[in-house]
DNA sequence: ACAGTTTCCCGTAAATGC
DNA sequence: TGCATTTACGGGAAACTG
């Protein structure tokens, strides 16, 4: 009865959330003579799953049988199953948590499609299986689930290997980087360039290893925390994909965001340019944040690079990043100075890069009110910094602090002292 | 079998959302001799509902039977039904939308509690009914539903009157104002004072009528739009309750928010005070917003009152209102001037009122970054206002505008011109 | 106690019904 | 078509569960 696969399917729902609707489609790739028959297809979930592995079990919602129709676009037979839903089958007998059990986002599942075709006296069984699926119960599991799907599809063509992650294969950096760039292309409309990928490779493997196209293990990619951080490489990168998707799509597509560049390299690049040159970078120490760094004139000819505290998704929901950049101001000792952001690295005048992202006109007149906006400001102070821009002084006694303040205040300006701080 | 009610219930779930869990409790108010019996109570939904009214019908989730237990606190018998859920029974036969059908938030329902008690040879049927309930399918219906519950409980003690809203009674303003103040007490921790209630009464009925304790109809309270607005009195008031609950609780409880005061009255009050006096008012033209108004020195001795564009829930989610007030700045012709908010009306120095609401310490040091905050600023300009604070000039030809500007700019400062604008 | 996982439910958006 | 009402589901938080 199990014939070689005569049909195939458009793999779409690679990650499925329980209690959430999804749909799937099978297509018959063989043209049949136009005779009078019905081809009824039935889907089942996890038929081929090896039992007793401690995997979760799911019931698929009822509408699991369909008659294939002629698809108008391609002319071939297809069946689309809509409004399907998975619900976990709480098995009291076979508890989860056996020895081997993987995290849920590495547990692979599949949909099986079966049809019976009776033609010219022959009885042909048609069957195919979806690509591996990951089933999650909450969107917060989606990044990990997506990583599994990516990794698995990158390294194997065998849809039936549902225990891939019990011993996940490694991938070469060139494979990984291609997949990453492709993710950016498809999800946010612009891939990653050589410099951006090189920074990512260094981050994942270190500079030597990524040049030599070393192997990236699944664990390095998705499970181990980055050095000194509390999140993995993919968790970090995915948080940035999400940030771009929600708040930075336009300026990302236009290439205004260098983004993947270390603090050291950003500093070096900016120091080559003229005062007022700036660039946009994703935070490496926090998830889903972006900052800008710019070159500011110090008072003895030695220009220094500053960065603002990175903006979160929530900040950007109040004000677009382009508006934040346009309206950014520094207040030094209570005096408002101009916007220090003049040239997007290397030499693009601010308005050439960001002029087109005008803040949308307010939808209604607010007659009678003083108009009021949030703007993003940094307070610099030459004497008594409001929230201790001199963290190393905080532990000193008040007396000592007074002496230091007195020493600093006559000659220094606020920006010089910032020179001594590290920045990310 | 229908005996007089021997039991009563703690009415809690006055508004129930479909597919969302709720619980309810019945208590037996009569002490029974301690004999060996079980008192089993069953709940049903909408038993007493008059049929054929076009009302929606609901099924209550299964756990509808319970044995009463002795409650440790009171010593009386009670049964708590937990994890109940309503789901609409889609009746294909009796469609909704009959002649009489009310909006869903005015459709009253009830839970019926029934017990059978066999004691000393007697067979006693116990029965009681909940207070009227409103069933909604989405939280956006909650304000209207809550209004119905309030109104109905204010005007009738008869729980069985489920068609109350087919001809809703009116209430006197004194009844309504008591209920409103009580809403503020219980929901946000501080009721409404005489001045606040008087403003609300004027808004609802006009000044004469509210002084004479006129009648407020259900329609005026909840259905008709306020004059010139696109929302009803209750919709507006509820949006403010919600704003306070989520973002202003502390300063509301401390009485820092005058809140309910018309623009004219605020203006008059502030003009009595010294320059820098300010007060906090809820927007009357938009839902769930708050603004501040302050007295600013004009340049010819005639102080004027300004208000900023009201803040929304979303604005306040970025920065607390106390912080917005503390950091508010005016920029006049590119020059930063100090915070104009000095004294909370009538005479409270800013820090005495708001000093205690320090912005919470940032949870982590952001070493190496220039600290950066949003602050709320207004740009005043003496010559060319950026986003037309002079709306009445917009229609003039550019040439005329130039002439006017030239006339104004030498002597005027930005604040004088604002004097001519209405403000809310 | 705790981490991985699921459930609960508000609030935005879209779909549906009348 | 427009308005009233419900459904869908992301995301924060709480509950669950070994």
From TrEMBL, chains A, B:
UniProt entry keywords in alphabetical sequence: Activator, Cytoplasm, DNA-binding, Nucleus, Phosphoprotein, SH2 domain, Transcription, Transcription regulation
GO MF assignments: DNA binding; DNA-binding transcription factor activity
Domain SH2: start-end pairs: 252-347
Record flagged with keyword DNA-binding: yes
Localisation per UniProt entry: Cytoplasm; Nucleus
Keyword Phosphoprotein attributed: yes
GO CC entries: cytoplasm; nucleus
A biological process term (GO) from this entry: immune response
Protein family membership: Belongs to the transcription factor STAT family.
Record-given protein name: Signal transducer and activator of transcription
UniProt source species: Aldrovandia affinis
